[in-house]
Specification:
It comes from Euphydryas editha. The chain is elongated. The protein has one domain. The chain has eleven helices and no strands. The protein is mainly alpha-helical and 197 residues long.
């Protein structure tokens, strides 16, 4: 079965939700950060719908198609210029690459279906432990994926050593000014000269 034929309905809905987020200028205060993260979560859940079915069909071309909406959403979540790379934007938005999340969802599904086939029913504590292990595995995969970034190396070098703490932090909001400092894309003489402004 073709990769995008499975995802076609979810893809059109995800594109519609992405447009809703995309109409909000990144510099305005509203919607605020939690609301933007909520929109990002909705689009992500639509894009990853049925991941255990189509994750094996992820070729380089399909990964590129999956990364496009993630970049747009991540840039809107962090309120940044469109010139910020996908790697830096998703890192600042604490949103691991969707292809890695799809692989994790597929592995979780295989594990759970294997338990059901054996007649086992995990307790709430076991499910919590499994989810925590899956989250750790995802962070580790993401850290390895960030080993040689094609772009956004300044941001990656700053956050990668502290990736787990960055993703799991419960305080602080990434403001418009702070994201300028972390990405180097902002009202700085060097950057403005670079883009001929």
């Amino acid at each position: 079965m073709e990769f995008w034929s499975i995802l076609r309905p979810a893809r059109s809905e995800a594109a519609e939700r992405r447009r809703c987020v995309g109409t909000t200028p990144p510099q305005r205060r509203r919607p605020d950060s939690p609301c933007r993260r909520l929109y990002a979560g909705i689009v992500r859940s639509m894009a990853l719908y049925g991941a255990p079915l189509w994750v094996d069909a992820l070729s380089a071309h399909n990964k590129a198609l999956l990364r496009r909406p993630q970049r747009v959403i991540a840039v809107r979540v962090i309120r940044r210029y469109r010139t910020v790379s996908r790697t830096a934007a998703s890192l600042l938005a604490c949103d691991p690459p969707w292809e890695l999340q799809a692989e994790l969802l597929a592995k979780m599904y295989q594990f759970r279906s294997g338990q059901r086939a054996n007649g086992e029913r995990p307790s709430v504590d076991q499910v919590g432990r499994i989810r925590a292990l899956a989250q750790r595995a995802l962070i580790q995969w993401w850290k390895e994926d960030l080993g040689s970034p094609a772009a956004g190396s300044v941001t990656v070098d700053a956050i990668r050593p502290h990736l787990r703490r960055w993703v799991n932090r419960r305080h602080g909001v990434l403001t418009f000014r702070l994201s300028q400092v972390l990405t180097g894309h902002g009202c700085f003489g060097k950057y403005l000269h670079q883009i001929a402004r």
